Amino acid sequence: MPSLLAVFALVTWQVAADGPLLGPDEQISRALVGHGLARLTELLADLGNMQVALPVLGCAIVWALVRGARWEPLYAALTMAAVPLLVVPLKDWIARPGPLTDATGYYPSGHATTAAVAYGAAALLIAPYTKRSWMMPVAAVLLTVATGIGLVLRGYHWPLDVLAGWCLSGLLLLALSWSSGRSRRRQPPK
């Protein structure tokens, strides 16, 4: 947790203060934008849309409720609700322009944060009920990384925007995991 917070703080400081990490960030982005199949990279970027990620989390919440989970689905929903509450003020405060536009509000990436929290929370909810519980977090990571790749290749976000979104979502998911673990330990065995 301290390392996620440290990376997030460092990246935020660099972006806010126009620090030396912005040069390589912009160079990497310019070298990558437009690469890959347009339809595929658009599909990958769209994995971070609320219209895609929220139904996945919603299905996982229903699945966990049907399986008898009590508090974990609520914690997952609250964690997802925290995303815009944290991301929107940061976007307004930093006011970073996007790679292909002068419009501001691109840091941190809301799509990257949404994808990571939705898929990560879904994995935390479903994993306890599967035989191969390791597959859920792996799928969540793959979907999250794919989203970030799509966002950068399409030119929707700078790489540091995506990295910051991942750090922020990692902090949220650690809090969710901790609260869910506490909840499970307090429930009587069935």
- Write down the Rg: 17 Å
Largest sheet: none
Number of domains: 1
| Main structural class | mainly alpha
Strand content: under 5%
* Intertermini distance: 32 Å
Query: What is the mean pLDDT?
Result: 93
The shape, in one word, is globular
Please mark out the parts with pLDDT under 50 across 5 or more consecutive residues, or reply none: none
Helix content: over 70%
Q: What is the N-to-C succession of helices and strands?
A: HHHHHHHH
H/I helix tally: 8
How many strands? 0
What features would you describe in this structure?
73% of the residues lie in helices and 0% in strands. The two termini are 32 Å apart. It has helices at 2-16, 22-32, 38-46, 50-66, 72-94, 110-126, 135-153, 159-186. It is globular, with a radius of gyration of 17 Å. Helix 5 packs antiparallel against helix 6. It has one domain. It has 190 residues and is mainly α.
Could you list some keywords that capture this structure?
8 helices, 190 residues, globular, mainly alpha
List the helices and strands and how they pair.
Layout: H1 2-16, H2 22-32, H3 38-46, H4 50-66, H5 72-94, H6 110-126, H7 135-153, H8 159-186
Helix pairs in contact: 1-8, 3-7, 4-5, 4-6, 5-6, 5-8, 6-7, 6-8, 7-8
